[in-house]
User: Fold this.
Amino acid sequence: MRFLIRNDLTILLGLYFFSLPLGKTLWYPLFVMAMVGAYLLVKEIRDGGFSLGTKWLLFGGFFIWVPAIFSMINTVDFGRTLQFIGTYPLSFLAGYFIYNRLSDGVNVMSSVYVISVIVAFWGVLAIWQYVDPSNPFGPGGSHNQGIHTRDNPFVDGGLMMGVILGSLFSFLVFALWARGLNLLAIFFGLFIICLVYISGTRSAWLSVLVTLCAVPVVALLRGFKPSLKTYVVSLCLFSAVAIAGVFAYQQPGLQIKLNQTLTVFSNPTREGLDNTLSGRVDIWDDAIQLGLSSPIVGTGVNNFRYAQPLLPDPAGTRWITEWNKDGHELKGPSHTHQILLEAWSGAGVLGLVGLLAFFVWLARTTIQVGKTGSLLAVGALVALWAGFFPFNTHNNFYGGWMSAWFWVWMGISAGLIFRKGEARAV
Assistant:
């Protein structure tokens, strides 16, 4: 029992990441985190009020939660909006549990090593799918995600390996780098880049680019002056990535995916952009119109799929299907595939302003931590940016597992920023 208590963060985080491709089982470790987090939060309040880290978490959460509450005024699906609002505190408590353990000095590297092993396991399965057409997870081609593959016979996959690794890339690499494991960090980073590319999830490609662009920014903030060795190693790394990219481009499935992504450059029109974005321009048009139909509070968070068909003349008609469940006759796209438009259509001006204010507040924290904080904390913040970059074209900010994903990274970030003995105002 003492072993479980001493290692509860590593065990629960490990179970959470291991469960990500398994469907609803990922909620079990999160629920345990939330229950323990609730106890710890009550204890903190009784002991004299909120710490700096707790205030940071609460402040960040209010940017999202408060506009969502106001969106209830005009929601087209009371139950779905209430579901997000009601479960949001549970996700916060799970994040608070992670923060509390890390801020108390629990060694995060145990979790880093466990998660790294899980990533390596996922990677082996994804590469197996990539090189072997007779693999047990499906034909692959444009998406090679191993156990995460949709409709594979083993688990309830959802093509989310790339999205997950898009955040983990910076966190794991920065953590290994901070421990002096430079060579391992480089090779493991290249391994993750390879996995993200063959995953075929293009929003995850953007996440990797966000991380790669963040590295020189962090170096400048910390006053790092590159040596000749740094330039040589960087040149070798870029060359290796370029050679690997040329090889991967020759594979039929990924070649089609990359060619589609570049369509807008050869055909710089709305049609070319729509093809590049897999038909999402129509969805974005409808999201804008939904926000205009209720500009102050939106049409309710977490229910774009039922609000979009109610437009008088929706652009994305090809996404609309018959739906006779929960009182809805029609169902449209699952979400807007764009974080800012998700806030605008679901929560109106309040949601959009709240989300923009959150990113400004997060940028302020990131700059300060980038200058004086630990590399571990910087890696966690970059992971948060990579997963929820404002111009990301895939993630649903109000979706179930993505909301929990957000709070996992908020908790890790806060725990590494506000470690006891290192706490600072941000």
